[in-house]
Design a protein that fits this description.
Layout: H1 7-14, H2 18-38
């Protein structure tokens, strides 16, 4: 379970340079884009599958 420290303290403890932080954000964004491309998209107006949430 994560520590009870506030998020700001945890981030400061990581001691990342601005360049390292930007690299981390870029890598996360790239992973998110890759994930979104893999997730099957429902067509607009297509009925939801039975037994699956609509969200």
């Amino acid at each position: 379970m994560p520590s009870c420290k506030p998020q700001r303290e945890r981030l400061q403890a990581m001691d990342l340079s601005p360049a390292q932080a930007q690299q981390l954000l870029d890598a996360l964004k790239a992973q998110e884009q890759q994930y979104l491309q893999q997730v099957p998209r429902r067509r607009a107006g297509a009925p939801a599958r039975r037994g699956q949430p609509t969200w």
